[in-house]
Structure formats: C-alpha cells, structure tokens
Amino acid sequence: MSKQSEAVQVSFQDNALLAELFGEKDGNLHQVERMLDVTVSSRGNTLSITGAEAKRARDMLADLYRLLETGQRVGRPEIEAAFRMGGAPSRAGDTIKTAKRSVFPRTVHQTEYIRALRTKPLTFGVGAAGTGKTYLAVAVAAAELRSGAIERIVLSRPAVEAGERLGFLPGDLREKIDPYLRPLHDALGDMLHRDWLARRMEKGVIEIAPLGFMRGRTLTNAFIILDEAQNATTIQMKMFLTRLGEGARMAVTGDLSQIDLPPGSRSGLAEALQVTAGLKDVAQVRFNDRDVIRPPLVSEIVRAYEQADAGGKVAPRKPKA
C-alpha cells in the first residue's frame, strides 16, 4: 500500500470522552482533517483514518484523547499545539498541577522552558506576547509553593518604563503600581484559590512589587519572577540578578521587540542574555511565532514584525519631542 493511500484505525473506550474529542458538529475532527489532509470516519468507538499523514493524525487524536482523560478540554488551541509538537500536546512529566488547574506545554519550547524552570537556578524566557513565558513561570512557582519545594513567591516588574516614575499618577503607592502588576495578579488568580491566595499575600508568602523594591534584599528558598524585563536598565538587572539567595530560583521574562526605555538606553535584559550565555546553571529559552498560543493571526503578526526587523524595514525609534 502506498503512503498516499495509507489507512489506519484507532479505538477509544469512553463514549463521553469520544464525543468531546469529536467536538461540536465534529469540529475537532474536521480541524485535524484540514491540518493533515486526511479523511476521518467513525464507526462506533473506532476511527478509520486515510491519507499520507494518517499515522500522524492517529497519534494526534490518541494524545488529545489522553488529554481529555486528565480532565483537560480539547479545542482549537490544543489541536494546534498537538500539530506543532508532532502529536504530543501534553507530556505527563511536564504538566504543572496547581490548585485550580493543570497547565501543560503546548509547544516544544514551552516544554523546554518548564523543564528549565524546575531545574535551573536562573531561567530566561524571551519572546513575543502570547508565548506563555510569564504564565508558565507563575504556574511553576504556584505549584512549587503548594508542594513545599519553595517557601515564598516574589513577582516583580519595572513600573512605568524603566525609571519607575510613579509620582505623577493619582492615588497612594498601591493605587499607583497596581495597573502595572495586574497581569501577575491575574496569572496567580488562575492558579490558586482566592481565599488561599489572599491569606498568603497578607502574610507576605506571596509578594508582588515593582522592581525598585528589590534593592538591598537577598531572597532565599523563593521563586522569583521578573516580568517585562526588557524595560529594566543594566543597573536594575544586575541588582535583580544578585538578589538570588540559597535555595532560590529565578525566572526572567521579556520581549526584546517591546522595549520602552528612552532612546539610546540599552535594555538590561539584552545585556544579561549576553553576559550569562554559556553559564551552566543558566537556561535561556527563546520563543518564536510558532509558540504564540493565541489566534493564528497573532502568530502571523509576530512573524511579520520579525521579518521586517530582520530586513531593516522598521524605522528606529526617534527621541520624543
């Protein structure tokens, strides 16, 4: 039998899960058919798949079914993730189990990133928005706090560009900084139950603060995350990295295409990536457009900007008048 006319079969036991695998009006099956140019037909609990990529489609559907067995949902993002990862959207050892949900890697780079966050004292996650670099770091931190592997979580961001100029904003300090730290609050809220989270924040077990508040501290037995690190200056970045204490792990995330520093200023993240390259206890994970877990148009936009930057078609930022 030629590869073009290859046919395979796969059977599933649970009718309820099989219905979820098919999706509304068999939408999930149709998506797999379009992606791999195969034909899927069903008879009872058995699927027959024909086409050049029949075996790959079978493996994708089997992995998606196993995902449903773990209590996860299957929709367009999960199917696209399975396609990108060659049929393996979830690897058991890489799934992050938090109090409210299980979080799994959807791309090869996300898998690499989770493994680094769990094993390396310092991990850089660099790439465009939507690649999961902050969300996954918060998920790992939340899971490890619940398990007792660490004693506290510290989340930080540069506030209002790198200079942290908060004075012109109305309200007290908390009201000034909350808008810049809200994404971190939201990520934690996805992982941990509200009451449990509130109690830990009151006790200082979970702390969210602007980057400037990290000066003079040594953080031990903690999981420390610096988000939007492209907007940290060289001095701030060096200060932050040297907060790493005994038993602590640190994640630094950022997007070098979204630097808000004044013209002529160099991003501390860009320099840190150069300085720490090659250090055995440091991981650097670079995400690209294929890692964007958002509608396909977002991936296309990221790719278009990357191509424009590579071709020198994007004009440099000019000083503000």
Write the layout of secondary structure elements.
Layout: E1 7-11, H1 15-22, H2 27-36, E2 39-43, E3 46-50, H3 54-69, H4 76-84, E4 96-97, E5 102-103, H5 108-119, E6 122-126, H6 133-147, E7 152-157, H7 173-191, H8 194-202, E8 206-210, E9 222-226, H9 234-241, E10 249-254, H10 268-276, E11 282-286, H11 296-310
Parallel strand pairs: 6-10, 6-11, 7-8, 7-9, 9-10
Antiparallel strand pairs: 1-3, 2-3, 4-5
Helix pairs in contact: 1-3, 5-6, 6-7, 9-10
Describe this structure in words.
40% of the residues lie in helices and 16% in strands. The chain is an alpha/beta fold and 321 residues long. The protein folds into 2 domains: 3-84, K Homology domain, type 1 (Ribosomal Protein S8, Chain: A, domain 1); 93-310, P-loop containing nucleotide triphosphate hydrolases (Rossmann fold, 3-Layer(aba) Sandwich). It has a 6-stranded parallel β-sheet, with helices on both faces. β4 (96-97) and β5 (102-103) form a beta hairpin. α1 packs across α3, α5 packs parallel to α6 (133-147) and α9 (234-241) packs across α10. The radius of gyration is 22 Å and the shape is globular. Residues 314-321 have low confidence and may be disordered.
List keywords for this structure.
alpha/beta, Ribosomal Protein S8, Chain: A, domain 1, Rossmann fold, 2 domains, three-stranded antiparallel sheet, 11 helices, 11 strands, disordered C terminus
